[in-house]
Amino acid sequence: IMQNALHRVPFRHCRLMLCAQILRRSYSSDIRNIGILAHIDAGKTTTTERMLYYAGKTRSLGEVHRGNTVTDYLTQERERGITICSSAVTFGWNGKRINLLDTPGHIDFTMEVEQSLHAVDGVIVVLDGTAGVEAQTVTVWTQADKHKLPRLVFVNKMDRPDADFDRCVQDLRNKLETTPVCLQYPTKSIEGQLSIYDVITLEHLSWQQGDLGRSYKQSKLETAELSVELQEKRNELIDQLSGHDDELAEVVISTESFDKVSNELIMQALRRATCQQKVVPVLLGSAYKNIGIQRLMDAVNSYLPAPAERNQIYECFGNEFAGKVFKIVHDKQRGALTLVRLLSGELKRGMRLICSRGQAETVTKIYEPLADEYREVSAVQTGDVAICAGLKTTVTGDLLSSSHASLKNAQKRLLKSRNSNTNTAEDEDLDDELFTIEPQIPDAVYFCSIEPPSISAQTAMEHALSQLRREDPSLRVSYDAVTGQTVLGGMGELHMDIIKSRMLSEYKIDVDLGPLQIAYKETIEAPALTTLSVEKEIAGSKQNASLTLELVNDQSELFSLAKTPENVQHLNALRPRLIQVLRKGALSALERGPRVGGQVVDTQILLHNATIARGTADSFVMATAAQCVQKLLSMTGTRLLEPIMALEIVAPNEHTSGILADLSRRRALIKDVMPKGDRNKLIVVNAPLAELSGYSSALRTISSGTANMTMQPCGFAEMNSSDELIAVRRAQGLE
């Protein structure tokens, strides 16, 4: 093939470039970059452990309940028995190099899944055989759809008595609206031992538990009845595939028989249909009981695409290096480590890179990924995944290239190909995403305050939060100048709890997480007018000031002169500098209202008269103005205004009534309920922030984890007297 290709290229340097390109494609054809996705506790990490063990990467089987798995290496992961951070591992299987990303299954860590999907070419979706398609399964499936990723389904826990393979397949059709093709079917012995029927080869597969499932036995079917039944399923598989693959359909039509279709033809057709996302192969087993894992890895090699089969968009870089940053972790010895998916070219140690935001970086070391263990390598080829040390300013989502010119030329080539070809809107979105600087980060749905154990730990806490933010883009950190709190925003209560635990275990800072202090505002109940005269001797100097001020409900200007025919001449005679001093003192009193110390808004201060004795200090005048406004606020009284949040909730139709009932108990105003798709409703609502503490968790409980929401501030609203009383008691710490 190489000789024929080179023979058609006239120029020597062009031949060399083509030769290098063919060699890179040959190398990348032996790579499989895959992610493993599932609902929490479906068995992703256990499946990954078996893959590493059977591939010879580990010498013993790790178990989640024992806290000794390779990919769950964080202290919090081993204590809780859940995956929190995505982990990358590399192993070989039957001549292929598999880069696998084990992702979290909890909804609070959806951002980890989103980041990982930028680096893979296909995914394994693990189902719990006893539960079928669950809430988070739908979420990760939608994410895979967004990235147009081919996928396999592995139905796990099929050894359990309550496992139902047929129901899982039906769930795939109904809940995920996909086309599953079953390559295996389960069977159990009298003792309840799980084994598998292979539809393509018509074999019975049984695993030996004496060697922890390392070996399995392939045997012909025992009875003619079984053989006929499985042959019918094989014919159904061929018939189903021929509807999606023209080459297989031609063979079936020409031979006029399903029996003459070879296993190789079926597997080739299945690979084409899977890579084109027309079908989803379904396999089964039990990771905990060491059954079916080798056949799952064979399916990864056989049916999921190599990098060169999916990433035609990256050809705009030609032979130049390009890589996408999809994750950053911090190691105690090595510092910040950047996980990069190589899109084109070769990455070498000591290479100088340019990120899409313009900064230059130098790769000091390159490692092969194996969770928190690292093996140093000198270079990495196209399509592979690498861990880079030495990148100091690079963040998640950055596109790395070898030079500014390379990046600009790639953009020009991409624009040219887009103009010459007919691209869909989805293709253009993928093109734009390649050069996007900022990753698409979901809005925070849970907020809390964070405080260091002492003032001396404030700087250390801020440094730790900056590192955690670099690792986890979904963590939001902000400072509320009104309440004086450092506010954390995230995806849920578990997310915040993990941040607190990591601050203690990794940075030795025992921070306190507390509820948000609601930033209420106040406004006057009615206009008020008063005169305040203050006379005092300070350090032998007589200070005297007399002011007449009025408070009115007005949103236009905060401070102005109340000119009337009687006082216009007097006010015009006031020096501009004195007016500025009076304005500054009066407005300072509006920063803290008399009820809960909230800012006084929608209020205007009118100056009617000001008599200032000669020699009176500006600070004394400012203090007098502030005291006069405070007196007015006490006279007229204030009403509380509470912050209102605008929520958009997307939930299945069957859970809408329960969500609306819960919102009504939270003093929410339902703005609209409209259909979104065939099965969901969009609920638009305004609700007080004080009633939304822990609402994200409550929403998941009500909707069984199927609803999602976005939330953002939308102003303030007045409170009734009973709600005001509760708010005042909370602000005073009495509730």
Keywords:
single chain, 735 residues, alpha+beta, Elongation Factor Tu (Ef-tu), domain 3, Alpha-Beta Plaits, 7-stranded mixed β-sheet, 22 helices, 35 strands, Elongation factor G2, Ribosomal_Su5_D2-typ_SF
Task: Summarize the topology.
Blueprint: H1 2-7, H2 12-28, E1 31-38, H3 44-54, H4 75-80, E2 87-93, E3 96-102, H5 110-117, E4 122-128, H6 135-146, E5 151-156, H7 165-175, E6 180-182, E7 184-188, E8 194-198, E9 203-207, E10 216-220, H8 224-242, H9 246-255, H10 263-275, E11 280-284, H11 293-303, H12 307-310, E12 322-331, E13 335-344, E14 347-348, E15 352-355, E16 360-362, E17 365-370, E18 373-377, E19 379-380, E20 385-389, E21 399-401, H13 404-420, H14 425-434, E22 446-451, H15 458-471, E23 476-480, E24 485-490, H16 493-507, E25 512-514, E26 521-524, E27 528-538, E28 541-553, E29 559-561, H17 568-572, H18 576-589, E30 599-600, E31 603-612, H19 618-636, E32 638-652, H20 656-665, E33 669-676, E34 680-688, H21 695-702, E35 708-718, H22 721-731
Parallel strand pairs: 1-3, 1-4, 4-5, 5-11, 6-11, 26-30, 29-31
Antiparallel strand pairs: 2-3, 7-8, 8-9, 9-10, 12-13, 12-21, 13-20, 14-19, 15-16, 15-21, 17-18, 17-20, 22-24, 22-25, 23-24, 26-32, 27-28, 28-31, 32-34, 32-35, 33-34
Helix pairs in contact: 5-6, 8-9, 18-19
